[in-house]
Amino acid sequence: EVTRAPRGLLWDDSVGTGHRALVMLSNLYLQILLTFHVYFWFAFGIFSVAVTVYKGLTFYYPNGALGWEIALLCVFFFLEWVRLSMASRGNKTETLEPLAKSIFLGFLGILGHAFFLRMQTWVILVEVVANSVGLAFSGAEMLFKLYTASRIYYDQRAH
């Protein structure tokens, strides 16, 4: 009689003992990255508001440029919040759909960090450092999300 593993778990005999063990599909390293990225996201939000106020009071902006940058910053923070929550939910529940949506939003997040890193009207050094850290988080998460999503996908195909 063939027994099946519960959904989200794989039978694994990688140690070669002949005994099968259940293996979780969720990724601990991804969850650790997501947890730290949430803390970074919160601090980055406060930091970005303070820097935007400073730049608005200190530097000259062409008509409407500061307003557009503030609007893009708000959209960016909202999308990052959605992306982080979907990635965490998809990883914890071992569900492909939230992870796939998070991967798509991850590309938008990387574009957002790239914009705030290089294409704003004024970019100061502390923003370069903060956005570089954000890019590192987002890039590492993308790799772990792709790996985790592929494991979940192949498990779903097996069942």
From TrEMBL:
Topology in the lipid bilayer: Multi-pass membrane protein
Biological processes annotated in GO: non-motile cilium assembly
GO cellular component annotations of the record: ciliary transition zone; membrane
Transmembrane regions listed in the UniProt entry: 28-54, 60-79, 99-116, 122-144
Alphabetized UniProt keyword annotations: Membrane, Transmembrane, Transmembrane helix
Domain of life, per lineage: Eukaryota
Protein location: Membrane
Database matches in PANTHER family: GEO07735P1-RELATED, GEO07735P1-RELATED-RELATED
Protein name: Transmembrane protein
Organismal lineage: Eukaryota, Sar, Stramenopiles, Ochrophyta, Dictyochophyceae
